[in-house]
Amino acid sequence: xxxxxxxxxxxxxxxxxxxxxxxxxxxxxxxxxxxxxxxxxxxxxxxxxxxxxxxxxxxxxxxxxxxxxxxxxxxxxxxxxxxxxxxxxxxxxxxxxxxxxxxxxxxxxxxxxxxxxxxxxxxxxxxxxxxxxxxxxxxxxxxxxxxxxxxxxxxxxxxxxxxxxxxxxxxxxxxxxxxxxxxxxxxxxxxxxxxxxxxxxxxxxxxxxxxxxxxxxxxxxxxxxxxxxxxxxxxxxxxxxxxxxxxxxxxxxxxxxxxxxxxxxxxxxxxxxxxxxxxxxxx
Length: 283
Hints:
This protein is mostly helical and about 280 residues long. It has three domains: about 50 residues, no CATH class; about 90 residues, no CATH class; about 90 residues, Arc Repressor Mutant, subunit A (Orthogonal Bundle), CATH 1.10.10.580. About 45% of the residues lie in helices and about 10% in strands. A three-stranded antiparallel sheet has the order 1-2-3, with no helix packed on it. The longest helix has 22 residues. The chain is elongated, with a radius of gyration of 44 Å.
C-alpha cells in the first residue's frame, strides 16, 4: 500500500533548446500548467510515500508470520525473541495508526505475561506438563487460527461468480416444446416379441384368406389416440385376432411413427411403452 501527498505532478516532458550547456531540460505539468523549475516554497512532508510490504489480518496472523519466518516449531515457541519482534512491529505501527495498534497491544500484553511466567519457577507434576506450560493456550489459538486460515484459502480458490466466470441469462420468447424420453428400438422389438408370444398361445388353426390394409389400421390407431392421452403399447393390439392382424397393426404403428403422426415414448429401460397422437397435442 502506498500513499503520496503534495503537488500532483504529471509525467516529465522534454523541452527543446535545453540549458546553457546544451543538454535537454525536463519540465513538468501541474494542473495543466507547464512547470520548468521547482518552486522555492515547495514542501514535501516526510510521510509523503509509505510502503507496507506485509499486511496482517490480526495479532494471531502477525504471530504466525513471525513464527514461520523464524522457522521454529509452533509447539515450542521461543517467547523471548518472539516477544521482542512482535513489540518492534507494534511500536512501528503505533506511530502511524494508534487505533489499528490497539488490538495488537492486547496480544503484546499477553506475550509479556507468558514471558514473565516462564521466567518464574514452576512446580513439576507428573502427567500435567501441558497445564503448567504458559504457552499452551497461545499454541492452541495459533493452531486453530492456522486451520481456519487454510480452510479460508481453499474456499477462496474455488470458482466464484463475477470473479472467475460470469452468469449468462437468455430470454426465449417462445415456450420450449416438452421433449419426451426416446424409445430404445430394442425395447420396441422386445414388446413386439411379447405380443407374438401371447398371440401364438391363443392362435386358432383356421386357414382363411383375408385382405388386410395397413392404411385402414393406421386410421384405427389414430381414432384410438384422438383423445390426446397416452395409451400403453399393448392396448393398441388385439391378441385374439391372430398373428397376421398383429403384423399389419404393428406395421401401421411404425408407418404412423415414420410420418410423425404419433409419438412413442418410454421413461426408462424395461418400462412400459406409451403412444400418443401428435395432432391431438397441438390441437
